[in-house]
Write a structure and sequence with these properties.
The chain has two domains: 89 residues, Rossmann fold, CATH 3.40.50.10860; 134 residues, NAD(P)-binding Rossmann-like Domain (Rossmann fold, 3-Layer(aba) Sandwich). It has ten helices and eleven strands.
Length: 295
């Protein structure tokens, strides 16, 4: 029996409909959520991501300001722009597109963002609050994964979850969210990485397998338990069609694994759409918080 497709595109559309309604309710109180995106350099993938974020913001009625800086922009110039956005009352959320050029300190830049406007959830204050289970801005991709599972009826309580990948953007935070003592958590989590011995031993135990390793098709069918739920975070360019369109593959061998599991996310159209949607969610939350409106 073919696996159920967990279509992030459809779930993201449903959430965006809810957000559009929330933005309309705020507009009735003369409040317009504002998002500032900052892009340093001309990396095509980053330009595409930032463009998609601004397009989604406009579609939802969120005020969006895009700042494009040249690659040799100094760290001090970038920090000055962030400080200006911190002080701008029309801006509720600030996103600095990563990665940054090598001459700029990523940690210094992320720490310079006002935690109350850190809608990416990367500021040390928000990371610490997430670890403690306190209210904060959750990082967008991990939060999107939790929403995918929740809205697809996948129970995490008591589940054996294996996360492959230990990045600060996906692996570490999603593992932390899944062990929290609340809805969408209460799982038993194993975190695997490049130094894990016999990774397949762990992945075969997973009721829920989340893969964010950045290696095309690294998870084969023999590494997955029958009836598991698989969330594939990977988006890898493996070629180009005759028309020039990129050929993408996830970190999971979709064709083979989908024959064995209960549910799986496609690539593209799975986790990706959720990331931008949760960024919009955080921006709306930020506007509510500063105006003391119940979340």
């Amino acid at each position: 029996m073919a696996a159920e497709l967990i279509r992030g595109k459809d779930i993201a559309a449903a959430i965006q409909k809810e957000l559009a309604e929330a933005v309309q309710q705020l507009a009735a109180q003369n409040i317009v959520p504002g998002l500032a995106t900052i892009l340093v350099g001309d990396d095509p993938a980053s330009q595409s991501y930032v463009g998609a974020k601004n397009k989604t913001a406009h579609a939802l009625g969120i005020h969006s300001e895009q700042h494009n800086l040249v690659a040799n922009t100094s760290e001090d110039e970038l920090l000055a722009l962030i400080n200006s956005c911190n002080e701008n009352k029309a801006i509720h959320g600030i996103l600095v597109q990563l990665p940054l050029p090598g001459h700029i300190s990523e940690s210094r830049v992320l720490s310079s963002i006002d935690p109350a406007k850190d809608v990416d959830g990367f500021h040390p204050v928000n990371v610490g609050k997430m670890l403690l289970g306190e209210q904060c801005f959750l990082p967008c991709t991990p939060h999107g994964i939790i929403e995918l599972l929740r809205r697809s009826g996948v129970t995490t309580t008591g589940a054996e979850v294996v996360v492959v990948g230990r990045s600060n953007i996906v692996g570490k935070p999603v593992a932390n969210l899944l062990i929290q003592k609340r809805e969408g958590g209460n799982a038993t989590v194993t975190l695997c990485h490049t130094r894990t011995k016999d990774m397949a031993f762990h992945t075969r135990r997973a009721d829920i397998l989340i893969v964010a390793a950045g290696v095309p098709k690294m998870i084969s069918a023999d590494m997955v338990k029958e009836g598991a739920v698989v969330i594939d975070v990977g988006v890898n360019r493996i070629g180009q069609s005759e028309s020039g369109k990129a050929i993408l593959a996830g970190d999971v061998d979709f064709a083979e694994v989908s024959k064995k599991v209960r549910a799986i996310t496609p690539v593209p159209g799975g986790v990706g759409p959720m990331t931008i949607t949760m960024l919009m969610h955080n921006t709306v939350q930020a506007a509510k918080m500063v105006n003391k409106i119940a979340l």
